[in-house]
Write a structure and sequence with these properties.
The structure is a single chain. The protein is of the alpha/beta class. The protein folds into three domains: 18-62 and 205-275, Rossmann fold; 91-200, Rossmann fold, CATH 3.40.50.1000; 282-365, no CATH class. The chain has 13 helices and 19 strands. The strands form five sheets. Strands 5-4-1-13-14-15 form a six-stranded parallel beta sheet. Strands 7-6-8-9-12 form a five-stranded parallel beta sheet, with helices on both faces. α4 packs across α5, α4 (90-101) crosses α8 (207-215) and α6 (148-159) packs across α7 (183-191). It binds magnesium ion. Keywords: Hydrolase. This is HAD-IIA family hydrolase. Residues 290-335 form the GCN5-related N-acetyltransferase-like domain. One of its GO terms (molecular function) is phosphatase activity.
Length: 369
């Protein structure tokens, strides 16, 4: 059973290196360890250093196509010290969900590839390839070989009463040639022919992270990722701290626009942050200070003063933007005047995240994007 957890507030301080504070890092792969076919510069070196400090490194992937062993071999080719037990896939998380619901050896229809069949076997289930085998469940995960016959057979089994599980709903999948349709598109194909929604294992849903925490024996886990709507949202949903790194798809503008449930505990340029403390942000009369930088929102733009580390500047900027966006609505002056003549004041919406200009402030602290 999972214990109840609550993630620390966004932009919390950590007064010791992150690698010392936490016992297990749950690392997203693409955008953190590698970007497409290329390793992220210094990632392997930073992870090796963190491991020496006692941090266990876990690798967490929504991609269900490959077994953990094959993912580990791929990661090792980037110079990382990794074995199959360090990797947790959404296929394993989905298999665990099925195993919790149905007896051992139950037939489960696979709409996917080797990553799913090996995960189902690992959890004591019997992967089958046809609805003629009367499957109790359908498990769907990305694999390049998924075809119309498999999708149609999956829909047939679900309509016959089999319970439907999806490893993830990612609409795109990064490939060496660029973005391609992901598992979410194939789930939509089946969804068009059935009347139920699938149970989802992968980020930002909680089963993959819960399974990872359990398999890696984490007591003080730290999620590390590049996507706010997947890695960071998932960490917040499970109630664990998160580190956003700038090496992937989302950037400082995305952070500024992030709704509360997608805001990270820590922000950093990359995995070098594992060896560092994280400074907090202090707030006084609308001024947000981190390190040598102080930011405030004036007329829907962030103004920042000072000098120092660029990421301290980013923390001050984000703190100021989020406070402005979260501020309760105030009546506008004109409406307040009208109220004096017996009309009700119109509530002014809290500042729109997109409407607060941050470009000049980012430039000022040295973070042009
Ligand atoms: Mg990623």
């Amino acid at each position: 059973m999972s214990t109840e957890r609550t993630a620390p507030a966004p932009l919390s301080a950590c007064d010791e290196p992150l690698a010392a504070r936490y016992d297990v890092a749950l690392l997203d792969l693409d955008g953190v360890v590698y970007v497409g076919p290329d390793p992220v510069p210094d990632a392997a070196e930073n992870l090796r250093k963190a491991a020496k400090e006692g941090l266990r490194i876990g690798y967490i992937t929504n991609n269900a196509s490959r077994p953990a062993r094959v993912v580990a071999e791929h990661l090792a080719s980037f110079g990382l010290d990794v074995i199959a037990d360090d990797v947790v896939t959404s296929a394993q998380a989905a298999a665990k969900l099925v195993a919790a619901e149905f007896p051992q050896r139950s037939p489960v229809l696979v709409v996917g590839g080797e990553g799913l069949t090996s995960a189902l076997e690992e959890y004591g289930l019997k992967p089958v390839r046809s609805s003629d085998s009367h499957p109790v469940a359908v498990v769907q995960g990305f694999h390049p070989d998924v075809n119309w016959v498999m999708l149609a057979d999956g829909a047939h089994a679900i309509n016959e009463g089999a319970k439907w599980y999806a490893t993830n709903l990612d609409l795109t999948i990064p490939t060496a040639a660029g973005m391609a349709p992901g598992n979410g598109t194939l789930v939509q194909a089946i969804r068009a022919a059935v009347d139920v929604d699938p149970i989802v294992a992968g980020k930002p849903e909680t089963p993959l992270l819960e399974t990872s925490i359990e398999r890696l024996g984490a007591e003080r886990p730290l999620m590390i990722g590049d996507r706010l709507d997947s890695d960071i949202e998932g960490a917040n949903a499970v109630g664990i701290p998160s580190l956003w790194v700038a090496t992937g798809v989302h950037d400082a503008h995305d952070l500024a626009r992030a709704p509360k449930h997608q805001r990270p505990t820590y922000v950093a340029a990359g995995l070098g942050a594992l060896a560092e403390k994280q400074p907090g942000v202090t707030v006084e009369r609308g001024r947000h200070t981190c390190g040598g930088w102080t930011a405030e929102v004036v007329n829907n733009a962030v103004s920042v003063k000072g000098e120092g580390e660029p990421y301290d500047g980013l923390r001050a900027i984000l703190s100021a933007v989020w406070a402005a966006v979260d501020a309760p609505a105030k009546p506008v002056a004109k409406a307040a005047k009208n109220a004096g003549r017996g009309r009700r004041p119109l509530p002014r919406p809290a500042a729109e995240p997109g409407s607060i200009a941050i470009d000049a402030a980012l430039h000022r602290v040295g973070l042009d994007s």
